[in-house]
């Protein structure tokens, strides 16, 4: 997988999440919305890799996770995220929703409100997490 693959996968998974939400499949919508963020973060990490460079082993190992907070750190976006949280209350609230997603959510059941909350936090046009990540992928 490369950067473009991760970007496209983030877009596709987000569209799928929105379709599942509209169809009333809230648990799948919740899971895929979080997975879209994971893919976007991995695209940000892939962007940091220069063609021909041998990647640092720790960075590679730390990238093979589903933990969004850790992926933000590996992508070098932690300081910017912290700054945005301080400047933009809506962004802070959105990150507060998104950061709680885990890959284990695929085993849980979610209600409509939970799925809507996550998808809104990801897609909000002004302060959404995906908008922020698109600036870096």
Task: Please provide a written account of the structure.
The protein has a single domain (3-134), classed as Four Helix Bundle (Hemerythrin (Met), subunit A). It is mainly α and 137 residues long. It has helices at residues 3-22, 26-47, 57-63, 68-74, 78-87, 89-98, 112-123, 129-134. The two termini are 14 Å apart. The model has no long low-confidence stretch (mean pLDDT 94). The protein has 8 helices and no strands.
Annotate the secondary structure layout.
Blueprint: H1 3-22, H2 26-47, H3 57-63, H4 68-74, H5 78-87, H6 89-98, H7 112-123, H8 129-134
Helix pairs in contact: 1-2, 1-7, 2-4, 2-7, 5-6, 6-7
**Protein structure class:** mainly alpha
The proportion of residues forming helix, as a percent range, comes to 55-70%
Number of helices: 8
What overall geometry do the principal axes of the alpha carbons give? globular
Instruction: Characterize the main sheet.
Output: none
Detail the poorly predicted runs: none
What would CATH call the architecture?
Up-down Bundle
Query: Care to count the β-strands?
Result: 0
The domain tally reads 1
Order of helices and strands: HHHHHHHH
Kindly report the oligomeric state of this protein: single chain
What is the CA-based Rg, rounded? 15 Å
């Amino acid at each position: 997988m490369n950067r473009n693959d991760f970007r496209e996968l983030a877009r596709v998974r987000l569209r799928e999440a929105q379709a599942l939400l509209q169809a009333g499949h809230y648990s799948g919508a919740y899971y895929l919305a979080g997975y879209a963020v994971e893919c976007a973060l991995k695209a940000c990490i892939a962007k940091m890799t220069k063609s021909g460079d041998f990647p640092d082993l720790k960075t590679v190992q730390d990238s093979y996770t589903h933990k969004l907070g850790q992926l933000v750190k590996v992508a070098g976006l932690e300081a910017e995220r912290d700054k945005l949280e301080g400047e933009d209350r809506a962004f802070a609230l959105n990150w507060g929703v998104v950061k709680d997603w885990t890959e284990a959510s695929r085993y849980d059941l979610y209600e409509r409100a939970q799925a809507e909350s996550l998808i809104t936090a990801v897609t909000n046009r002004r302060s959404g997490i995906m908008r922020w990540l698109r600036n870096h992928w």
